[in-house]
Amino acid sequence: MKSFSKTDIGRKRQLNQDYVFSTDESVGKLENLYIVADGMGGHNAGDFASKYAVDTVVREIRGSAEQKPFRIIGKAVRVANELIRMRAKEDIHMYGMGTTIVIASISGHELQIANVGDSRLYVIGESIRQITRDHSLVEEMVRKGGIAPEAARNHPDKNIITRAVGARDSIEVDFFTEELKEGDIVLLCSDGLTNMLSDDQIFEIIKKRSTLEEKADELIKAANENGGKDNIAVILIDDFA
Questions:
Q1: What is the pLDDT of residues 17-52, one digit of tens each?
Q2: How many domains does the chain have?
Q3: Which of 95, 100, 129, 172 is 20 to 30 A from residue 207's alpha carbon, by CA?
Q4: 148: burial class by Cβ within 10 Å (0-12, 13-18, 19+)?
Q5: Which domain, by its residues, includes 179?
């Protein structure tokens, strides 16, 4: 197994509010762990929220007494949500902060995924498949038939998310399982990538570059060349390497 992770501030932001954690080694009872978080909030709250959430999740997973991966991850996300809520109440400058989070772990060739918000996980093989579902106002409009999927990417309300770690006292986490095949590449990313590149563009870059590092560098370069309007976070995983 091999992985590569990278974040970039983009071309418009003064602060990088994306945060990643990536290891091919075991963390607690999980055989490996990959996380992308995209913080939100004014001043320094967004970058604090993303880092604090990821650090909390990693710590909780490392010390978890649970046995099943989704129970381990779900409990860790709930603790992160509680602690961010507490911190926001204690400091006025942190009020309203929160973060998306997408988490992956692989056991054998089974990919286990959890997400809150609109950071995404894709599996790229013979085609590109978005496994996670965005928790966003626009995605809800698409699911209800209010707008066409092709109109969603450039919709003015694209960045309004309906779920985030720290947004409410209780949190709902989505879980997914995928069986990986040889040749599949797993991509976790923030919306700083997907708002700048279409799925077809991501697929083309993943397929034409050889190493994971080259793929990640080209994804970030292309996102910046298309505007770089937000921070960009990328984790790429090849389970069969």
A1: 999 999 999 999 999 999 999 999 766 799 999 999
A2: 1
A3: 100
A4: exposed
A5: 2-238
